[in-house]
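Worked Example 4.2. Consider the chain below.
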Amino acid sequence: MRPARTVDPAIARSWLLVNGTQPATFDTASSSRADQIVLDIEDAVDPKRKPEAREDVATWLGNGGHAWVRINDRSTPFWQDDVERLRGVPGLLGVMLAKVEAGEHVTETFEQLGGATPVLPLVESALGIESAVDIARARGAFRLAFGSGDYRRDTGTSADDLAMAYPRSRLVVASRVGGLPGPIDGPTVGSSHPLLREQSALSVALGLTGKLCLRMEQISVVNEVISPTSSDIEWAAEFLRAFEARGREIIDGSDLPRLGRAQKIRRLATELGVDGGAFEGL
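Applying the procedure from the previous section yields the following structure tokens:
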């Protein structure tokens, strides 16, 4: 069993959803290359099996496992049981709260869990998108995530890239307004790696910085696409070296924005372990 995730959840790229009714797979998922794993006791679980799944998840966490848990939304009768059982459980890194439509859903969950466990609101409806800023500003909110499938069902929106750009952009803007890390995009359904690569690249282009994964084979593609590219790393290293060589002197109005971008690329590449030594000595 991998003891704890090594990638800071604030910059985690791949978030692997794991069915809470399959405890035999928890160790395997924990040992995968996913930046974070999310044990799912919400949509993946039949209502009749939720108590069993909740107990299996809590037991695994209490016995040395480390993971996030996707819990049922505030409007369901399962929410109270979820937060009561998970409160104080060792190994619980945080909860992904399903179907969030108001900031108070986040705050109530945060408080019920003891006021220290981070809450990752999953926004999955038109009302949730419209309330995104309030959700991002809610006490306990850690990072927003997009429930793209439920959003399409709620609104009748197609999976077309243009049609789905609006809700994704709303989450990106709300995250910035709320002072949160970039949001996590919904999953790609299917086993096509070219499609996954294309959709992950679109997420990055829109400003999202993570993606939910449904299968372990999706992890490597998501991690690669969402990481800084080799050309970005090369550019950042060259810019920072030139900037240092001239005594950090600002020459024109483009220097500060470029410096900020270069520093962000260096931080991400270094923390994600993909810098290849490019920033050595900087």
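Residues 230-272 form one domain. The chain has a mean pLDDT of 95. Compare this with Example 4.1 before moving on.
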